[in-house]
Design brief:
The chain has no helices and ten strands. The chain folds into two domains: 18-92; 93-125. Helix content is 0%, strand content 53%. It has strands spanning 18-26, 31-36, 43-45, 49-56, 60-67, 76-79, 84-92, 94-98, 104-110, 113-119. The protein has 125 residues and is mainly beta.
């Protein structure tokens, strides 16, 4: 509610442009993206520098960012001069052990399931 006085009055309103920063994880559930400063709704005032940090879940490693910026540097900053969309890409980690006979057993983790395969030299994977 605005109460208007009986005499002439000037009102001043200041507006700031805000832009949405949308983030995605690929594959889903492989990690998370942290933003600093944080935003409760994903909107930032124009000109704000936002540092994005990719954090992998167990069994994954960070591979790269894609979308409105790319590369494997982690963390990275983005200036909010327009709406932006960024994806953090992760890769499942493979663990390999070689026994005395040169047989390699590898495991890769996929969303709490473990997949196992064996490699017998001189074959290739």
């Amino acid at each position: 509610m605005v109460t208007v006085p009986n005499s002439a009055t000037t009102y001043l309103a200041n507006f700031e442009t805000e832009y949405l920063l949308a983030t995605t994880i690929s594959p889903g559930g492989a990690g998370a993206i942290g933003a600093s400063p944080t935003s409760p709704d994903g909107y930032y005032v124009s000109g704000t520098s936002v540092v994005l940090t990719a954090a992998p879940m167990t069994g994954y490693r960070f591979a790269s960012f894609s979308g409105d910026f790319g590369g494997a540097t982690n963390p990275q900053a983005i200036i909010m001069s327009a709406p932006h969309s960024v994806t953090a890409n992760f890769i499942a980690i493979s663990l390999c052990d070689v026994n005395k006979m040169g047989i390699s057993t590898c495991r890769t983790y996929k969303r709490s399931r473990m997949k196992r395969w064996e490699w017998h030299p001189p074959s290739t994977i």
